[in-house]
Design a protein that fits this description.
The chain has 316 residues and is of the alpha+beta class. Helix content is 11%, strand content 20%. The protein has four helices and 15 strands. 49% of the residues are buried.
Amino acid sequence: MSDHCCAPDRPADARPEGTSRRATIVPADGRHLIEQAELPGGTFTMGDQHGDGLAADGETPVHQVTLSPFSIDVTSVTNADYARFVDATGYRTDAEMFGFSAVFHLAVQAKPSQIMSNADGTPWWIGVRGADWRHPGGPLSDLDGLDDHPVTHISWTDARTYSRWAKRRLPTEAEWEYASRGGVEGQRYPWGDELDTEDWACNIWQGTFPKINTEQDGWLTTAPVRSYRPNGFGLWQTVGNVWEWCADWFDPLYYRAPSAADPKGPPAGRARVLRGGSYLCHDSYCNRYRNAARSSNTPDSSMGNAGFRTAVSFAP
């Protein structure tokens, strides 16, 4: 069970049987239509250098990591991107196969008969029958006007399947953090160490969580993927908006003895890593909209605030 704005995992009984700091932005190619930031790799400092994280998240000890060159999407995968994949393959997501997904209580659009119970410990999450990537609030919602918003209700398995179709992969946790930092060491956020509450730099909660969102930044849930401004590598919204799946298994103790070169996480586990926080993050409860912040969920879990971006290794 998750203890923050990342949704609870899918219950078991619900299951059906570097040294260089420059980036080159390259155009989309072939079936995957998102621009890429080509990062030459190098060594960076990974982990929480400010003491912001919870011990259970395992953001420390801070350590040096060296990465080989790779490219990463400049935005999260959008609803339009995912629709092309589904149209080409007929793929059905885990949410569609299970018949329900987790929706934040203020975003539910469903008949009473379609609303399931609140999640234990996180009552703002509600299981909604018929909620999926095409119906992010439930069966009474749709994607009208949301083509350029990040796709949600995507499990780790769904994200990996899209990545393979696109001839790419999910980024490792280390690649994700390196890319999010935008070439600057030690910052809390992609833009610096401070959050300006007059000029919002990311899509997070404003107001009193979880009952009142003043929507000062303009959004109750997701924002278009090119909102706000990109980081030093040209990546948009690596923090806030939606959590993003990474390739690694999650282990809160992994940083105690990580690989120093191209780490890929533990060899096995129960949950996969999520990075970046979401539109539900608020300092009163969940401050995980930071470069170093970590979360996790089971590979078949889906929710209304999680999506992904893809990566691939390349030779410079």
